[in-house]
Amino acid sequence: MVPCMSSRVATGRKMGYAFDITGTQGALRFDAEDQNALWFYDARLRRGRQGFTKILTAPEHPDFGAFCEGAGHGTGYAAQIIIEARDFLSAIDSGKSMFPTFEDGLQVSRVIAAAFRSQQLGGWVRMAEL
């Protein structure tokens, strides 16, 4: 496992907030420096055809069409903050939860805790143990 590090003063990347989700049949990667793309890897493809595919946001994706009418024309940080504010205010107005909820945040925290525990123990851990 790669150690988790954070710095507000390190040189290099400007917005290097990224995450990778890997599984037995593929992987996803998101990087905030390329926030209008999701990288998808399908491990089920035959050898020689495997590799990450860049999926660009497009009007078919939720919230995108309000800001850009064509695929590949990215939204910016400000547009994403506007979308978050709209969802937050809609939740207050309707009294209904929006995604993500505090429960979703708790589950993410449990997964992160499990990853750190797994690294400490050098093996698998059960989520129920946390």
What's the gist of this structure?
The protein is an alpha+beta fold and 130 residues long. It is built from 2 helices and 4 strands. A hairpin with a 5-residue loop joins strand 2 (26-31) and strand 3.
Question: What can you tell me about this protein's structure?
Answer:
With 130 residues, the protein is an alpha+beta fold. The chain folds into 2 domains: 18-98, no CATH class; 100-130, no CATH class. The chain is built from 2 helices and 4 strands. It has helices spanning 77-94, 102-121; strands spanning 18-22, 26-31, 37-42, 52-56. It has a 4-stranded antiparallel β-sheet with strand order 1-2-3-4, with no helix packed on it. The longest helix has 20 residues, at 102-121. It is globular, with a radius of gyration of 18 Å.
Strand and helix layout:
Blueprint: E1 18-22, E2 26-31, E3 37-42, E4 52-56, H1 77-94, H2 102-121
Antiparallel strand pairs: 1-2, 2-3, 3-4
Q: Give the termini distance in whole angstroms.
A: 19 Å
Radius of gyration from CA coordinates: 18 Å
Strand order of the largest sheet: 1-2-3-4
Number of strands: 4
Count of folded domains = 2
Q: Which term fits the overall shape? A: globular
Roughly what fraction of the amino acids lie in strands? 15-25%
Content-based structural category: alpha+beta
Low-confidence stretches: none
Calculate the mean pLDDT score and round it.
Answer: 84
Q: What's the SSE pattern?
A: EEEEHH
Total of helices: 2
* Share in helix: 25-40%
Describe the sheet with the most strands: 4 strands, antiparallel
